[in-house]
Design brief:
The longest helix has 21 residues, at 2-22. The protein has a five-stranded parallel sheet with strand order 3-2-1-4-5, with helices on both faces. It has helices at 2-22, 32-42, 63-77, 97-108, 124-138, 149-162, 174-179, 200-203, 206-213; strands spanning 46-52, 81-87, 115-118, 143-147, 167-171. The protein has a single domain (2-213), classed as HUPs (Rossmann fold), CATH 3.40.50.620. The termini are far apart. The chain has nine helices and five strands.
């Protein structure tokens, strides 16, 4: 049993090193404050903002989902982005993460016709890939990504090295969320429910889930280099 435990720990360490290696160059990322203020100063407006999903427990949003949805709402309200792409399948709970976030966003005042959904992604790298592909199909020319600083660090290299178009990173600026009272919308989650749901923990091993986080399920382009077509 001890040997098995050591093997699992070793696999985790190897995967962490692999993640950091594949995201080489991700160790430098603008602070949330600097990234936001630079965008405001440049008056840059992005066609779409990708927001990775978070599991929903059927009662209310978690602190993580709350921060991501509110941040996307602030960026939309302040004119930094025109549209939002919420991304996330029903992964750990029987609710499509993307649709749940969209329901909250609509309650906050983002028009439904400015909200788009990727309900395929089950891992963070897939959030970026499937949303990028959706943005291409919709004709969006400039896109950004909004998430916590820690996840942004891990996704920066993937986003910048694997795609033909630059993806702006907007780490969540916690100070802005704390600067004023934030709304606490209430939703009916029923429209986001997935019948016949099976948790990813029953479909994939721990090693497979780590691999998915590292991008193992993201399709590679047929022709090298390992980059997808520009938007």
């Amino acid at each position: 049993m001890r040997t098995k435990g050591l093997i699992v720990k070793a696999c985790v360490v190897v995967m962490i090193v692999f993640l950091l290696w594949t995201q080489w160059g991700c160790f430098t990322l603008e602070s949330p404050r600097r990234a936001y203020r630079k965008a405001v100063a440049q008056q840059k407006v992005y066609d779409a903002l990708i927001v990775p999903g978070v599991p929903f427990d059927s009662i209310t949003w978690s602190n993580t989902m709350r921060a991501r949805v509110l941040w996307s709402w602030l960026l939309y309200r302040n004119g930094s982005v025109k549209n939002i792409i919420y991304s996330g399948a029903a992964v750990y709970s029987p609710y499509y993460e993307a649709k749940i976030m969209g329901l909250y966003a609509q309650q906050l005042g983002i028009p439904a016709d400015h909200i788009y959904y990727d309900t395929l992604a089950e891992h963070s790298t897939e959030n970026v890939y499937f949303s990028y592909e959706l943005a291409r199909k919709l004709g969006f020319k400039s896109i950004a990504l909004a998430t916590e600083y820690e996840q942004a660090i891990l996704l920066k290299g993937f986003a910048h090295r694997r795609f033909g178009t630059y993806i702006k990173i907007f780490p969540i600026y916690e100070a802005m969320l704390d600067a004023e009272p934030m709304p606490e919308p209430v939703i009916d989650p029923a429209p986001a429910y997935k019948p016949g749901f099976i948790s990813i923990t029953k479909r994939e091993s721990f090693r497979q889930r780590l691999g998915g986080t590292a991008g193992s399920k993201v399709p590679l382009p047929k022709n090298r280099p390992r980059r997808f077509p520009p938007l």
